[in-house]
Amino acid sequence: MGSDWENVVVDAEDPGRLARWWAEALRYQITYERPGEVEIRRKADETPGIVFVTVPEIKTVKNRLHIDLRPDNQEAEVERLVDMGARHVDVGQGSVDGWVVLADPEGNEFCVLAPRT
Predict the structure, then answer these.
(1) Per-residue model confidence as pLDDT tens digits over 13-60
(2) Exposure b/e, 57-75, CB count within 10 A at least 16 = b
(3) 10/52 same-domain check
(4) For helices 15-26 and 74-84, what crossing angle results, to 10°?
(5) Partners of 30 in the β-ladder
(6) Do both 117 and 70 map to the same domain?
(7) Do 37 and 9 share a structural domain?
(8) Which segments does the entry list as coiled coil (predicted)?
(9) Range of the structural domain that residue 82 is part of
């Protein structure tokens, strides 16, 4: 017996705003929305989804779990995401080849990887 991966849940100050940001970033769609909870998925019937929920506290430390994105063009994707409101962050990665660490508008870190060779 096993489990299917349904969702990743992200704590947020403003779930609607953050869900819309990630939906645009990932080219996902909003599949469910009510006050304090918004879900996005690639397609309405496709898992896993990402659910954004309201929490009272602000983010204060580095994420213990993050998303890695792998675009066809890393440089162009980093530029697009920064133009959307992401920012470069240092989580102690030092000088690395192969990925760029960014944070979404609420400070959640994620990586943009180089294309597969």
Answers:
(1) 999 999 999 999 999 999 999 999 999 999 999 999 999 999 999 888
(2) eebeeeeeeebebeeeebe
(3) yes
(4) 160
(5) 40
(6) yes
(7) yes
(8) none
(9) 66-117
